[in-house]
Amino acid sequence: MGLVIATVNMKGGVGKTTLTVNLATSLAKNHQKRVLVVDLDTQISATLSLIPPQEFAKARRERRTLSHLIYQSIRPKSQSKYSIRDIIKPYICSVKQLDLLPGDIDLYDEYLVSEMLHKQAVVEGKGDFNEVWNQFEKQLIRGILEPIIDDYDFIILDCAPGYNLLTRSGIVGSDFYLLPARPEPLSIIGIQLLERRIAKLRESHGIDSPLNLRLLGIVFILSGGLIGRYYKQVMQRVTDDFSPAQLFKNRIPMDVNVAKAVDSFTPAVLATPNSSGARAFTKLSEEFLQKLEVSGNLYQADQNKVNLSNLD
Ligand SMILES: Nc1ncnc2c1ncn2[C@@H]1O[C@H](COP(=O)(O)OP(=O)(O)O)[C@@H](O)[C@H]1O
Ligand SMILES: [Mg+2]
Predict the structure, then answer these.
(1) Ligand 2 centre and the CA of 310: distance in Å?
(2) Predicted confidence band at 67 (pLDDT cuts at 50, 70, 90)?
């Protein structure tokens, strides 16, 4: 069963996309995992970090982007001919088992969504508007991915900053989420706000099992120089607030090679594997797998508990 993992932080520019594409590439290249990157951000940074703009433009002309799958969910009777398998691009950056579901600069129309859900609630009497909305939000991204989840080991969702419908839908459809953050005071507040919002999402979408929608860990994207020294104090505050299991030990340094890799549409772990940034992402991908193994074991232990209690 493939795991869906969302990379989230309501703040922009904290390193979500960079983490998504480097982690995904490293998991496919170094660990032979089957990985799909899904670009949920209309900035299409993940898409353009992995394929050249001409290739994206062609996919867009052919209507082979995520936008068309979302449109099919909003207008189920639409005549779009492509399924998710037709839209996914395989063999990204010539890496076997690294796939991309390209994003788009237009992903959905809020008015159309509201109109459709209002019709379902009021005209078709499917329930209270809030309930209908929550049900749609819960199913939208997970429903699009459902046919291909088992084709992959990991599906990593690159979420947009802010808290729009697709970000919320991506989060509620995920098994785990990763939280990249810069160790700055406002970024720390961002972590707390996000945690609060996720708690509310759990409540409104009836996700009560602690085994669903779990924080896999906070990844610190460091800042260099003098400012870096000050930020150590800020990081201490996070260490006080979260358990060690909720933090990644490996941290990502600032490295110009990581930023420059975007020019060649190839993540740093491939373009400059020996750079300090790429090495940090490679180690982080090992820690990522270890963390999942530990949580898998916890999950197993929990299942055993359930089974034993059934014997009483
Ligand atoms: N470790 C790093 N070293 C150097 N530049 C980085 C690093 N991580 C991210 N960046 C740069 O910071 C900017 C914001 O990163 P990005 O991943 O796009 O953030 P987000 O997706 O959260 O908006 C980009 O220009 C990216 O190239
Ligand atoms: Mg981004």
Answers:
(1) 45
(2) very high
Using alpha carbons only, give the angle 141, 10, 213 rounded to the nearest 5 degrees.
45
Q: Ligand 1 within 6 A of 258 CB?
A: yes
E strands, 27-121, are 35-39, 98-101
pLDDT tens readout for residues 201-235: 999 999 988 888 999 999 999 876 666 667 777 78
Q: Give the residue extent of every domain in the chain.
A: 3-311
Pocket test for ligand 1, best of 17, 18, 167 (most atoms within 8 A of CB): 18
Helix (H, G, I), strand (E, B) or coil at 5: strand
pLDDT bin (cut points 50, 70, 90) of residue 300 is low
What burial class does residue 98 get, using C-beta atoms within 10 Å of its C-beta: 0-12 exposed, 13-18 middle, 19+ buried?
buried
CATH superfamily of domain region 3-311: P-loop containing nucleotide triphosphate hydrolases (3.40.50.300)
From the list 84, 88, 98, the residue with the least C-alpha distance to 34 is: 98
